[in-house]
């Protein structure tokens, strides 16, 4: 008879995870943050510098960005990415970065544990991907996410989202699950 350990959610550690994020760069880290149950909302008093986007954001006050029509919200946005959702995320997280400004994010984040999905982030290089080759300029390009490292050597990423804990995706020397109450130990 095999013994099966239970994690903090009561799930067996031998059960497969429903989501595996391949890549621990900025996109993978942001996806992990969303899957950890952090939900973006527009700040009630926020004013976005893009007039069309500002008008659209006021149409559904108090509704999570994730529960809105992302195609509609991203219409008319331009930038370096070919992905409309990436352009929208960049525009909301750092509204005027493309123009050299430093305007604060129009987003606020709420941790909704009931929306968390168990997952693991896998990466073969240092967490942060492009940050390690783009230096300080990369911090602005990736919305303020910045890599730092814990004394234990596992990669730790300072969250771009105010009032949230650090996030620890996979380190280059070993694979660790994303440290959320929703993730399983490997």
Could you describe the 3D structure shown?
23% of the residues lie in helices and 14% in strands. The protein is of the alpha+beta class and 186 residues long. The chain folds into two domains: 1-37 and 112-186, no CATH class; 41-111, no CATH class. Strand 5 (146-149) and strand 6 form a beta hairpin.
**Strand line-up across the major sheet:** 1-4
Q: How much helicity do the residues have? A: 10-25%
Rg, Å, rounded:
18 Å
The tally of helices reads: 5
Distance between the termini: 21 Å
Which consecutive residue ranges, at least 5 long each, have pLDDT under 50? 1-6, 136-186
Structural class of the secondary structure composition?
A: alpha+beta
User: Which outline best applies?
Assistant: globular
Organism: Macaca fascicularis (Crab-eating macaque)
Protein name: Oxidative stress induced growth inhibitor 1
Region (Disordered): 156-186
GO molecular function: growth factor activity
Write a compact overview of the structure shown.
The protein has helices at residues 26-35, 51-57, 70-74, 84-93, 131-141, and strands spanning 19-22, 38-42, 107-111, 119-122, 146-149, 155-158. The protein has 186 residues and is an alpha+beta fold.
Supply database-style keywords.
Oxidative stress induced growth inhibitor 1, two-stranded parallel sheet, disordered C terminus, two-stranded antiparallel ribbon, 186 residues, growth factor activity, OSGIN1/2
């Amino acid at each position: 008879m095999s013994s099966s350990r239970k994690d903090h959610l009561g799930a067996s550690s031998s059960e497969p995870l429903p989501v595996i994020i391949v890549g621990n760069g900025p996109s993978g880290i942001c996806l992990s943050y969303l899957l950890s149950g952090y939900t973006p909302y527009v700040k009630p008093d926020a004013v976005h510098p893009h007039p069309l986007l500002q008008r659209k954001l006021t149409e559904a006050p108090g509704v999570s960005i994730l529960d809105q029509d992302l195609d509609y919200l991203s219409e008319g946005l331009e930038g370096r990415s070919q992905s409309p959702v990436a352009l929208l995320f960049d525009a909301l997280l750092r509204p005027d970065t493309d123009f050299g400004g430093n305007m604060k994010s129009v987003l606020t984040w709420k941790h909704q544990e009931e929306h968390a999905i168990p997952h693991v982030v896998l990466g073969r290089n240092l967490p942060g991907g492009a940050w390690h080759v783009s230096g300080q300029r990369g911090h602005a390009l990736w919305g303020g996410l910045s890599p730092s490292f814990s004394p234990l050597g596992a990669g730790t990423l300072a969250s771009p989202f105010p009032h949230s804990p650090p996030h620890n995706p996979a380190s280059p020397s070993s694979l660790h699950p994303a440290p959320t109450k929703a993730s399983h130990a490997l």
